[in-house]
Design a protein that fits this description.
Elements (H helix, E strand, L loop, with lengths): L7 H10 L8 H5 L10 H7 L10 H8 L9 H11 L1 H4 L10 H13 L5 H8 L16 H17 L12 H16 L8 H35 L1
Helix pairs in contact: 1-9, 9-10, 9-11, 10-11
Length: 231
């Protein structure tokens, strides 16, 4: 069976489609490129008609996370996160014994930031834009919206063709840095209700997130070459 991998942008759109206020259905977000019996069980669950807000067990979040490209999402690691390392960010399950889509997005964001940051830094960075864990309405930005925003920028780098830079001044890395900053600034318009004093916070958190995902990609590629060299 073909191994199914999702980009971060695809995963973010899938999570957003589960929000009752979103006009896109999970089927719209997923598409029809695979037969139903080819889909992982967690995707089959998401695509089934559901009344009310859908929630996820920790095992299901791990299953979802491991569908994301360039991601390593061990269950024991995630259990430690919610019990200790980022408990103050994630909180307890908010749908009975299930976690919300926003809590799932928060865990995916943490996984991305872990590529380069320690937990103390992650907590400090994310509390710049997320407030009361029991009330997502007071956040500067919604976790899933933030995930989609920086995932969209990374998608531009990794899955789209960048403009030619051979004739431009500066190094390749400098141009990628400028490109990331410009695309993150452009994504600011997708957020609603950000007051001027919080714009720089959101921008910097987006840039940090994109750079850590890019670092994670390089780590994954490096491991592949190490495996090839030693095989």
């Amino acid at each position: 069976m073909e191994t199914i991998k999702l980009t971060r942008k695809q995963m973010a759109n899938l999570l957003l489609s589960l929000n009752a206020t979103n006009r896109r259905s999970p089927h719209d977000a997923w598409g029809d490129s695979h037969k139903p019996d080819e889909l992982p069980p967690i995707i089959q669950k998401i695509l089934k008609p559901s009344k009310g807000e859908i929630g996820f067990s920790l095992n299901e979040i791990v299953s979802l996370g491991n569908l994301i490209e360039f991601t390593n999402f061990p269950q024991s690691t995630v259990q430690n996160w919610v019990k200790r390392d980022v408990r103050g960010l994630i909180g307890s399950p908010q749908l009975g014994k299930k976690y919300t889509t926003e809590q799932a997005a928060m865990l995916f964001i943490v996984e991305d930031l872990k590529a380069t940051l320690d937990f103390d830094s992650i907590r400090k960075i994310l509390t710049l834009v997320f407030n009361n864990i029991d009330d997502r309405t007071d956040d500067i930005v919604n976790p899933t919206d933030l995930y989609l925003a920086y995932a969209s920028v990374f998608d531009q780098i990794h899955h789209q063709s960048l403009p030619s830079i051979k004739t431009a001044d500066g190094s390749v890395n400098e141009h990628i840095d400028v490109f990331i900053k410009d695309e993150c600034r452009a994504m600011l318009s997708t957020f609603e209700g950000i007051v001027e004093e919080n714009v720089s916070k959101v921008l910097n958190v987006m840039i940090i997130s994109v750079l850590t995902v890019q670092a994670g990609f390089y780590q994954a590629v490096t491991k592949k070459y190490v495996t090839d060299a030693l095989s």
